[in-house]
Amino acid sequence: xxxxxxxxxxxxxxxxxxxxxxxxxxxxxxxxxxxxxxxxxxxxxxxxxxxxxxxxxxxxxxxxxxxxxxxxxxxxxxxxxxxxxxxxxxxxxxxxxxxxxxxxxxxxxxxxxxxxxxxxxxxxxxxxxxxxxxxxxxxxxxxxxxxxxxxxxxxxxxxxxxxxxxxxxxxxxxxxxxxxxxxxxxxxxxxxxxxxxxxxxxxxxxxxxxxxxxxxxxxxxxxxxxxxxxxxxxxxxxxxxxxxxxxxxxxxxxxxxxxxxx
Length: 262
Ligand code: PEP
Ligand code: MN
Description:
By secondary structure, the chain is of the alpha/beta class. It has a domain at 92-261: Aldolase class I (TIM Barrel, Alpha-Beta Barrel), CATH 3.20.20.70. The protein is 37% helix and 16% strand. It has an eight-stranded parallel beta barrel, surrounded by six helices. Helix 5 links the parallel strand 7 and strand 8 (161-165). Residues 31, 57, 61, 93, 113-115, 136, 166, 198, 201 line the site of phosphoenolpyruvate (PEP).
């Protein structure tokens, strides 16, 4: 049976006015929404660089229950207000179907995280809304499982799905996850959905983000997701992998240059 995600699309995938599948799109922002000052500083900076879509988590899927869990709906409302102020589109993760409806007015796209790639009730709920979904690949999900997770959303009525390769678990410990470049090429070949590459959660370190992003674009990726924070050393989550603003500005300039050359 041919899957819906393999069938020719009637419409392109958009977040707000930004379309995926043409020029690569760079989505940047902090791991988590922490304070009004932090969000104001980083969103002002990103809008100044002409970034159009920002990310920032309010519901954080943390391995330990004792780690910062995110500011929840109040954080999302705050980030949404500041994003609007700077003319930015906001992407944020929702972890369960129950939170979806309440959060929806504050989001331009809903992120389904790696840990929830096979949360089938969330996938079905995401299929019933009319906002775009960024679906991240599960920590140990095969390309087939990733494909079928996307199919759940589309089969439930929402064809606005952007896949996100964010690294998978392997024996390698030099990176947090192993960025699966093959998956990007294979999914581009097989599916009619755009795919972006989250270099930050793949690498778990900040020194190799530019080459990974270039690789993601070179194999046909439709965009890059990356974490940046005004003061990474005091970030409440993923401190070791977030670029500071100087580092991000340089990353952004170099990646734009690369995109214009290829
Ligand atoms: C995130 O992007 O905030 C995140 C938690 O990533 P992942 O779901 O890929 O681990
Ligand atoms: Mn993170």
